[in-house]
Design goal:
Layout (H helix, E strand, L loop, with lengths): L1 E5 L2 E2 L8 E2 L1 E5 L2 E6 L6 E4 L3 E5 L1 E6 L10 H5 L5 H14 L3 E6 L5 H8 L7 E4 L38 H13 L5 E4 L18 H13 L4 E5 L2 H10 L3 E4 L5 H10 L2 E3 L8 H6 L5 H8 L4 H12 L2 E2 L15 H8 L4 H7 L2 H6 L17 E5 L12 E6 L2 E4 L1
Parallel strand pairs: 1-6, 2-7, 8-9, 9-10, 11-12, 12-13, 13-14, 14-15
Antiparallel strand pairs: 1-4, 2-3, 4-5, 7-16, 16-17, 17-18
Helix pairs in contact: 4-5, 5-6, 6-7, 11-12
This protein binds zinc ion.
Length: 401
C-alpha cells in the first residue's frame, strides 16, 4: 500500500531550502518526493513541514534524570531501571527522533527488543559501556570502600575500566562481543563522575591509538567523550570518528578536527541542567563543586567549531537534561553560530553520515527508509517545536500520532 503525504512543505535534510512537495512511501521505503504524487491512501498535511526522521547521536536511553539521585537508586530493586526505559524510548520517538547512537547504558537486549517490536522506540546503534581508565569517568570506585550504583556491571554490560595498550584492546573486544556497534571511550575526565577532572587528558596517546586500532580491526568506529583540549587532541590524532562534548575546544583543536575530518557531537543540551544539578543536595558534593562555577563554555566551543567549519552531528547527552528535551539542541545550535537549516542538517543527513547510515536514512529521497516527521507550521522555526510534532513515521509505520 502506497501512502502519500500531500500539501505540505518538505525539508529534505540535504540543506536545500524547504519547498512545496508531496512524499510517498510504500512498506518501509520512500517511493517519491515531488509535486502531485499518487497513492492508495492520501494524508493531507497542508500547513505542515515534512522532515526526515531526526537523529540523536549521543543519548543514554537506559538512564533517567531522576537516577542522578544515587541514594534513591541504591535502595531501589536492581531491575527497576529496566522498566523505566520504555518511557525514555517513547519520549524520544515522540520528538521525531527515529534513530539514536547510545553513548553507554543501552545493552544488546534493549536494542534487540526494539528491533523485534517488543518495545517501541528509535532504532539504535549502541556502545554498551564507555571505556575509561582507572579513576576515570566510568570508574565506580568510592572512597568509602563501596562501589557506585551508577556503574554496576551485569551480564551483557561489561565493566568498562581498562588501562594499558593490551588492557584497552581486550576491553574493546569485550564490548564488541557484548554487542557494541561503536566503541565509546573517555579521553578526559567528566563532570558527573566525582573524582576526575574534565580538563585533564585520560589515557596516554598510545592507549587511545590502541583503542582505535583494535576497534578498526573489528569494523568499529570510536566516539570519544572529551572536554579538555589535550584529551580532544589525543582522540583526534588517534583517528577517533567523533569528539563528544568538546567543551573546551580551542581554535587549534578545531583545525586538527578539520584536517582529520573528525566529527563534533556538541551535546549543548546537557548544559541546561548544570545550575540545577549544582544546587541539588542529592548530587554528590564533588560533582556539585565541579558544576558550580562551570557556566556554559561548551557554547563558546561550539561557536569556534561552527566558524572553523568542523563537521557537526546532533547529540544531546539526555538524560543529563531529561529525556524529551532533546530538541533544545536545535535551539542552542541556532543561537550559537548555526543557521536553523544547518542545525536541522546536523540532526538529519550529517548525523546519518556520522553513523554510516547515509545510504538508508538522513534525507527524504526515493529508496531511503520511510522515516518521516510531520511538523505543524514551519519546522525551521524552533519555538515550541516539540509541541508541533504531529505525526512520526518510522520505516513507513505511524509510531506517533
Ligand atoms: Zn553522555
Amino acid at each position: 500500500m502506497r501512502i502519500v503525504l500531500t500539501g505540505g512543505r518538505v525539508f529534505d535534510g540535504t540543506g536545500a531550502p524547504a519547498g512545496d512537495a508531496d512524499v510517498s512511501f510504500e512498506d518501509d521505503r520512500i517511493v517519491d518526493v515531488g509535486p502531485g504524487l499518487d497513492g492508495d491512501e492520501s494524508v493531507d498535511v497542508t500547513g505542515a513541514t515534512l522532515l526526515p526522521g531526526l537523529f540523536d547521536c549521543h543519548v543514554h536511553l537506559a538512564e533517567r534524570y531522576e537516577d542522578f539521585d544515587e541514594l534513591l537508586v541504591m535502595h531501589r530493586p536492581f531491575s527497576y531501571r529496566f522498566f523505566t526505559i520504555a518511557e525514555n524510548l517513547r519520549r524520544t520517538l515522540a520528538l521525531g527522533i527515529t534513530t539514536v547512537r547510545d553513548a553507554a547504558g543501552a545493552d544488546l537486549g534493549l536494542k534487540r527488543a526494539v528491533e523485534d517490536g517488543i518495545l517501541e522506540g528509535p532504532r539504535m546503534r549502541i556502545s554498551v559501556n564507555a571505556l575509561s581508565m582507572t579513576g576515570g569517568h566510568s570508574d565506580a570506585w568510592l572512597p568509602s570502600g563501596g562501589l557506585s550504583v551508577w556503574n554496576v556491571s551485569y551480564p551483557g554490560m561489561p565493566d568498562a575500566v581498562c588501562d594499558g595498550v593490551e588492557g584497552v584492546a581486550l576491553k574493546v573486544r569485550e564490548m564488541v562481543r557484548a554487542g557494541a556497534d561503536v566503541i565509546k571511550i573517555s579521553s578526559t575526565g567528566g563532570f558527573l563522575s566525582p573524582f576526575d577532572d574534565p580538563a585533564k587528558p585520560h589515557y596516554s596517546q598510545e592507549e587511545v591509538d590502541a583503542i582505535v586500532a583494535a576497534a578498526a580491526d573489528l569494523g568499529r568506529w570510536v566516539m570519544s567523550h572529551a572536554h579538555g583540549v589535550e584529551g580532544i587532541k589525543r582522540a583526534v590524532r588517534a583517528g577517533a570518528r567523533s569528539i563528544e562534548h568538546g567543551t573546551y575546544l580551542d581554535r587549534e583543536g578545531a583545525e586538527m578536527m578539520l584536517e582529520r575530518s573528525t566529527w563534533l557531537v556538541p551535546t549543548l543540551t546537557a548544559g541546561d541542567t548544570t545550575e540545577a544539578l549544582a544546587e541539588d543536595p542529592k548530587i554528590p558534593e564533588p560533582v556539585r563543586e565541579k558544576l558550580r562555577e562551570l557556566g556554559r563554555p561548551e557554547l563558546d566551543a561550539f561557536r569556534i567549531a561552527a566558524e572553523a567549519g568542523v563537521k557537526v552531528a546532533m547529540g544531546t547527552d539526555c538524560p543529563v537534561a531529561p529525556h524529551g528535551t532533546n530538541l533544545r539542541e536545535l535551539v542552542l545550535m541556532a543561537e550559537n553560530g548555526f543557521t536553523p537549516q544547518q542545525a536541522l542538517v546536523a540532526a538529519t543527513s550529517s548525523a546519518a553520515e556520522l553513523m554510516g547510515l547515509q545510504d538508508e536514512l538522513g534525507t527524504l529521497e526515493p529508496g531511503k527508509r520511510a522515516d518521516v516527521v510531520v511538523v505543524d507550521g514551519d519546522a525551521l522555526v524552533f519555538e515550541k517545536l516539540p509541541q508541533r510534532i504531529r505525526t512520526v513515521y518510522k520505516d513507513g509505520v505511524r509510531v506517533i500520532d
